[in-house]
Design goal:
Oligomer: heterodimer
Shape of chain A: globular
Largest interface: A-B, 23 and 24 residues
Shape of chain B: globular
Strand content of chain A: over 45%
Radius of gyration of chain B: 13 Å
Number of helices of chain A: 0
Number of helices of chain B: 0
Strand content of chain B: over 45%
Largest sheet of chain A: 7 strands, mixed
Structural class of chain A: mainly beta
Number of strands of chain B: 10
Largest sheet of chain B: 6 strands, mixed
Order of helices and strands of chain B: EEEEEEEEEE
Radius of gyration of chain A: 13 Å
Helix content of chain B: under 10%
Number of strands of chain A: 11
Structural class of chain B: mainly beta
Chain lengths: 119, 107
């Protein structure tokens, strides 16, 4: 059974870089149709799509975050990562990783990790 | 592209039928999904590409629509169905955008 797990610091200082990793266990990532996504949810609010990377390494980012976001994948380690730079308090949220096959719609999700931006 | 969900809150009793709407600002063909999210949990994919139930999703959940107007129907609400529901599209730029959500609460 495929499982995803986010990892990374729970507290990031303003203006610094938020860095999270999602590790995939229990399944293969060697498919040409996978999409690996990051989504976030500020406390008490709705879901915000951050972006995704596919098996070919192509990325798509939310235009509102594009200048600050990088998503990458390391298939040999079965991990994909999120970097969000120049963070502010508005970036405080639960961050989810998700994996979609064969489309970007998330069949599998991590449990989410709360990242707080504060000095 | 913008996805608008209505109503924001739906107050119903167990056993009743729930009808949730998602309207896109431009056509997304049939490339729309529905998710369920319970407090403290990650979203769960219910429906993909407008009308296809994801693996393990009960038959009381159904999706319909195409173009700009989509509906998620729960034929008879079970106690575990009270949650927040989101739609998401993958057709137009930017792909992956979510709607604002509909909360289905117990009346």
């Amino acid at each position: 059974q495929v499982q995803l797990q986010e990892s990374g610091p729970g507290l990031v200082k303003p203006s610094e870089t938020l860095s999270l990793t999602c590790t995939v266990t229990g399944g293969s990532v060697n498919s040409g149709s996978y999409h690996w996504s990051w989504i976030r949810q500020p406390p008490g609010k709705g879901l915000e799509w951050i972006g995704y990377i596919n098996y070919s390494g192509n990325t798509n980012y939310n235009p509102s975050l594009k200048s600050r976001v990088t998503i990458s994948v390391n298939m040999s380690k079965k991990q994909f990562s999120l970097m969000l730079n120049s963070v502010t308090a508005a970036d405080t949220a639960v961050y989810y990783c998700a994996m979609g096959l064969p489309t970007l719609f998330g069949n599998y999700w991590g449990q989410g990790t709360l990242v707080t931006v504060s000095s | 592209i913008v996805l608008t969900q209505s109503p924001a809150t739906l107050s119903l009793s167990p056993g009743e039928r729930a009808t949730l709407s998602c309207r896109a600002s431009e056509s997304v063909s049939s490339y729309l999904a529905w998710y369920q999210q319970k407090p403290g949990q990650a979203p769960r994919l219910l429906i993909f590409d407008a009308s296809n139930r994801a693996t393990g999703i009960p038959a009381r959940f159904s999706g319909s629509g195409s173009g700009t107007d989509f509906t998620l129907t729960i034929s008879s609400l079970e106690p575990e169905d009270f949650a927040v529901y989101y739609c998401q599209q993958r057709s137009n730029w930017p792909p992956g955008i979510f709607g604002g959500g509909t909360k289905v609460e117990i009346k």
